[in-house]
UniProtKB/TrEMBL annotation:
Protein name (Swiss-Prot/TrEMBL): Uracil-DNA glycosylase
């Protein structure tokens, strides 16, 4: 694997991001509040395809404990 950066195959887990949300739209069920769009696929995939770089707005969700 010569010439590839370490982030080339890095996948962003939208489900762990505080900006990710599920919409009521059956055609576009996944959304990103940081970028302000809805899509049929995970927003991080759309960002990667559009910009060529991994999502830079990923922010890990804070765990809210049960106690």
């Amino acid at each position: 694997m010569i010439g590839k950066s370490k982030t080339f195959d890095t996948r962003i887990n939208c489900y762990a991001c505080k900006h990710f949300y599920v919409t009521w739209d059956p055609q576009l069920p996944r959304g990103c509040r940081a970028f302000g769009f809805k899509s049929a696929t995970l927003p991080s995939i759309v960002v990667k395809q559009s910009s060529g770089t991994p999502c830079m707005k990923f922010a890990k969700k804070e765990n809210k404990g049960n106690g």
